[in-house]
């Protein structure tokens, strides 16, 4: 995956036009189009603005990182809260060995779920990053 491809993918994922993104970061849509088609590379300042706008890191846009982006971190937090809320509001109380679980155990479950979600996202990133873009 090239930088241009990742830039275009991030923009399209948000259903934003080139004109909208270009105006947000202070360039023309022609320049943005050149970035997305890999005719030109953005300078570091512009790349930083794009990363901020897309709520990711410059390393992520450059294909250098399997770290989770800000959006992925928020997604994990949202999914975790939703899952815990569903567990709390279920018809049956959370139990272990026939006894209701205490607050400490609930916190341990929350931590375990959060870690599992993080690992799943990172494994998915590694799995779906082409080998030629992975670090040796």
UniProtKB/TrEMBL annotation:
Pfam families to which the protein is assigned, alphabetical: HTH_3 (PF01381)
Coiled-coil intervals, chain numbering: none
UniProt cross-references to SMART domains, sorted A to Z: HTH_XRE
Protein name: Transcriptional regulator
A GO term for molecular function: DNA binding
InterPro entries per the UniProt record, alphabetical: Cro/C1-type_HTH, Lambda_DNA-bd_dom_sf
This protein's UniProt keywords: DNA-binding
Domain of life: Bacteria
């Amino acid at each position: 995956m090239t930088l241009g491809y990742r830039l275009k993918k991030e923009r399209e994922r948000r259903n934003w036009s080139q004109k909208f993104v270009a105006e947000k970061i202070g360039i023309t849509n022609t320049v943005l189009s050149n970035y997305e088609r890999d005719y030109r590379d953005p300078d570091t300042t512009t790349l930083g603005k794009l990363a901020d706008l897309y709520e990711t890191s410059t390393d992520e846009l450059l294909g250098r990182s399997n770290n989770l982006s800000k959006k992925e971190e928020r997604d994990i937090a949202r999914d975790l809260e939703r899952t815990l809320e569903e567990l709390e509001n279920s018809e049956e109380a959370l139990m272990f060995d026939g006894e209701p679980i205490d607050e400490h155990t609930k916190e341990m479950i929350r931590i375990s779920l959060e870690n599992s979600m993080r690992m799943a996202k990172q494994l998915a990133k590694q799995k779906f990053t082409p080998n030629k873009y992975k670090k040796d």
